[in-house]
Amino acid sequence: KSYGEVRNRTQQSAIFSYSAEKHVHCSGSSEKKCVLHQGTKKSPRKPPKMTSPAAIKREYYQTDTAVTVTVLLKNATEKNYAVAFAPDKVELTADGIEPIVLNLWAAINVERSTHKAYPSKVEIKLAKLEGHRWEDLEKKVTEVAVPLPPKKTHHDWDKISKDIEKAEAEEKPEGEAAVQDLFRKIYADANEDTKKAMMKSFYESGGTVLSTNWQEVGAKPVEVKPPDGCEFKKWD
């Protein structure tokens, strides 16, 4: 073989060796011509979607000494499940699910608590630290409302006082209160002689006579005039 033929074969071998990771297309002619095609890049795989703990059903029952929790998780052993105990909580992890964390109602004995996997579930047995009945499996988490500072209120005391006076003025008294209110208005608007007549007649008659005529009242004592059906008597 000539040097040229050997050189050509060597070059072709190098091309095919380089094309191991690429697509090679060669024509059928005596002098094979090879065309290299760059392979398409594959997009990176997205991580598998994790199952939420809320989507995994769980049940529990209790005795005086233990609480048994059943988590409906199929093929837990194949999913590399694990259970971690703490005095006040328990956590279950497995492939393909987000961790299931239970904040327990009461404290447990970590050393005596156990777990076991079955084909369709995981059974977790929590040994009670104290033999009293749990009201629920988990504690109720309540948000504590932060008290807001009291709002500063500004009172217009002058306006409030005027409003009270206006309400009192608009309020219409009834019965004896209406009579007393009428007498107060008459006395307030009267002249000096009228005021003296009212005071003298009311005092001397024991509250049975109220006169505004000073000429009549001022000339003589005012007699007691009790209402009809009543009799006036002096007390010794």
UniProtKB/TrEMBL annotation:
Q: Residues in domain SGS? A: 145-236
Show the GO MF annotations.
protein-folding chaperone binding
All copies of domain CS, residue ranges: 53-138
Name the residue ranges with Basic and acidic residues bias: 25-34
Q: Where is the composition biased (Basic residues)?
A: 39-48
Q: What InterPro entries does the record tag this protein with? A: CS_dom, HSP20-like_chaperone, SGS_dom, Sgt1-like
- Entry-linked CDD domains: p23_CS_SGT1_like (cd06466)
Gene3D superfamilies linked to this entry: 2.60.40.790
Q: Which Pfam families match?
A: CS, SGS
Output the superkingdom of the source species: Eukaryota
Question: Which SUPFAM superfamilies does the record associate with it?
Answer: HSP20-like chaperones
Q: Where is this region: Disordered?
A: 25-52
List the protein's name: Protein SGT1 homolog A
Question: What organism is listed for this UniProt entry?
Answer: Culex pipiens (House mosquito)
